[in-house]
Amino acid sequence: MEPPVKRNRIDDSINSITIKNQTGIDNLIDSIINSKNQPQIILGDEYYQTLPLIKVFIGHVKQPKDISKLFEILNEKLPLKYLLHLKRVRKKDILLSPVSFLNSDTQESIQEYIERNIPEIKDCFEYFREATVPLTPPLTRKQYMENLRHWSLNFHPNHYIETIMSDQPFKQSEARNHRIYMALTFEIVKWYFNIKSYEDILQSDFNAAVVVDPTINSVVTLAVDNRHEHPLQHPAMLAIDNVAKTQGGGAWKIDIDDTLKEDLKEKFKIQYGTRSGTAESPYLCTGYYVYLLREPCIMCSMGLVHARAKKIFFSLDTPLGGLKSKTKLQCIESLNHRFEVFTGFL
After folding, report:
1. pLDDT (tens digit, 9 = 90+) per residue, 238-247?
2. A single GO BP annotation from the record (predicted)?
3. What's the whole-number mean pLDDT along residues 20-30?
4. How far is CA 35 from CA 28, 84, 238, in A?
5. Are 283 and 308 in contact (CB under 8 A)?
6. Which of 3, 73, 140, 186 could be stapled to 257 by a disulfide with Cβ–Cβ 3.0 to 4.6 Å?
């Protein structure tokens, strides 16, 4: 089929670029495939940020033998409610309540509050002090360890999150497959736009997409930028449309050049194919991985949400990107589908 652009077409935005020697982009592609580093997941900010703190009252117990009794009484008459991620007792210190619990208008101290409302424990404390403790529970072991200096916490690690956030989230064979499929996006852009170097890519906004069915380790479709002909024909949108074609749908008659497909198959030892037409046929991109040279825009990101993609991989950030730079659609809980996003190939 006719390609969306001629092979030697160079967009006006890079006409002034001095083309470097041919080995530039080829070396980059080789380094992507052979790198030992693995792509890293992009999660919501709450997984990376410092936990917010809140001021609380701490009571230092006179006699350690009274701690059990104090624990029971305080849990009944002064429950922590939204601070249940905090341990109530730390050695001879007991967490009493947030400082904001007391009515600031009355200027009542924590000692006065206890004497008036829990008189049975008023003589159990040597002194009171204020401290800062985490307002919200830790989501990662790193957050947990960083906040132990403030106060003891209850923490139940999510083993999947800990693994996916590690330096080695994938098996080595999986990581290599991710890198090969990402390398395809660079090779497609190189072929269509006569890209010669990494600098050429950085100074342009060319993009390409590869959709993979990981259950059969097969490329379902390829797509390249065609925005110069149609404003909606971003690679991600074309890729979704191409997937729809494999399922009896699709709206655009655009496909990757057959010569390029064969070149990619030979160079990267990939296979093409889909489960469509079988009992296991997915809905659009359900279960599929999508690889993009550049972070998709918000329109494309929402398209990938509606297409039910499983994982999205990209190499380069874009200022108006929908998965990292401008916003993180994959982290919006109200969406009816969410996928995982990975970057860090370069």
Report:
1. 999 999 999 9
2. tRNA processing
3. 74
4. 10, 44, 29
5. yes
6. 3
Does residue 73 contact residue 120 with C-beta atoms inside 8 Å? yes
Q: Give me 51's structure tokens.
A: 């936990």
Reported in sequence order, the residue ranges of 116-249 that DSSP labels E, i.e. its strands, are 125-134, 208-213, 218-224
What is the mean pLDDT of the segment spanning 16-22?
35
Q: Copy the structure tokens of residue 12.
A: 């006006």
Say if CB 251 and CB 233 are below 8 A apart: no
pLDDT of residue 15: 34
- Helices 298-306 + 235-245 axis angle, to 10: 20
Domain boundary among 164, 187, 214: 164
Flag whether pLDDT at 207 surpasses 80. yes
Question: In one letter, which amino acid is 122?
Answer: K
**Domain coverage including residue 227:** 12-43+167-343
CATH number of the domain enclosing 25:
3.40.140.10
d(CA 169, CA 171): 7
* 17 pLDDT higher than 50: no
Cα(258)–Cα(236) distance, rounded to whole angstroms?
A: 19
Residue where a domain terminates, one of 164, 180, 207:
164
Taking the CA atoms of residue 315, residue 321, residue 324 and residue 326 in that order, the dihedral angle to the nearest 10 degrees is 150
| Residue 4 falls inside a structural domain | no
Say what angle helices 23-34 and 172-193 make with each other, to 10 degrees: 160
Quick one: three-class SS letters along 124-155? CEEEEEEEEEECCCCCCHHHHHHHCCCCCECC
User: From CA 105, how far away is CA 116, in angstroms rounded?
Assistant: 17
Return the biggest CA–CA distance within the chain.
Answer: 87
Identify the CA nearest to 233 among candidates 219, 252, 218: 252
Residue 278 has pLDDT above 90, yes or no: no
The CA distance from 121 to 110, in Å, is: 12
Same domain, 173 and 263: yes
Q: Is residue 1 part of a domain?
A: no
Contact predicate 238/307, CB 8 Å: no
Q: Are residues 283 and 177 in the same domain?
A: yes
